Every structure is written in structure tokens, then in C-alpha cells.
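Onboarding guide, step 5: your first structure request.
Type a short instruction followed by the sequence, for example:

Predict the 3D structure of this protein.
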Amino acid sequence: MKALKAFFLSRILREKILMLAFVLIGAAIWLSSVSDRVGVRWREIRATSTDLDVQQRWLVQRARIEKEASLAIEHLDATKTFDSVRLQSELNSLARDAGLSNYDVSDSRDQSTSQFAVHSVQFSVRNADIGSLVAFYKELSKRAPYVGIEQFSLASNRANPAQLNVSWKVTSVEIAQ
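The system replies with C-alpha cells like these:
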């Protein structure tokens, strides 16, 4: 340390100012990097705290939610629920009855709990007229609350704007027996 101090003091004023400027620039760059990392960590801490607060609110309401869920399940008829195969079959049947010909039903994705299972499929229709789509939707909505639409997207066909391309994410509930 003494050698460094002696070296610094032996320099002329112009060199001392230049070395001091380099040290200050290096410190500023280092502090900028540190402040960026601290900012990232601070945002992560805040996001985690928010998530924990939301989870705590759900946990506080757990008894009420379980009570409402069991009451809702009591009103559902287990024979009207759809498993994944029946959901795909029902969508095929509804599409044919509505006059849709250019459609696709994806494989089912399932999420299960001890009381029920939720099955999801992506249902896409290309080059359909609005009348057929409305007929399909009306028939599908008659199966609520056992079948529902979770996501929906609609776009007109560029070649023929009278024809529509539609994509639905359709979900069904199956009560575990």
C-alpha cells in the first residue's frame, strides 16, 4: 500500500487527476452493475411477497371455498359430465350437426384432483360461415356447466372474408365417482 501511495504522490498533477478519473469511472461502472443486480433482486423479492400475500388470502378463505365447491358439486349430475373421449366425440358430433366440415379436435389435456377432472381440447375450424359457427356455439352452450369455452380466437379468411377461421379451447368437467 505504501508503494502505491508513493507512486501516486510521485506523479505530476495532470497524471494524478487522470488516474483519479479512471478510478472514479471504474467505480461508477461497478456501482451501476451493483445497482442493476440490486434492482433485479428487489423486484424478485416484491414479486415473491405479492405471491405469498395472494396465497395467504386464498388459504384464509379455504373453508369457504371448499364449502362452495362441495355445494356446487352436489348440484352437478355425474352422468352428464364428459370424460376426454366423450368430449372429443361430442365436439365432433356438434360440428357435423352444425354443418362444419373443415375442423380439427386436438388430443385432450387432463388435470385431475380427488373430486373431479378437467379435460381440455383445442377445437379449430377453417373456412366456415358465421351461421354454422353460431349454430355450433348455441349447441355447445346448452351443455354448460359441464362443457365450457376457455379461450376463443376469430379471424377472417384473407382469400374470402365471408369465411372465418376460429379456434376454441374447450374444457369439460368430469366428476370422480
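Each response can be followed by summary notes, for example: The two ends are 79 Å apart (CA to CA).
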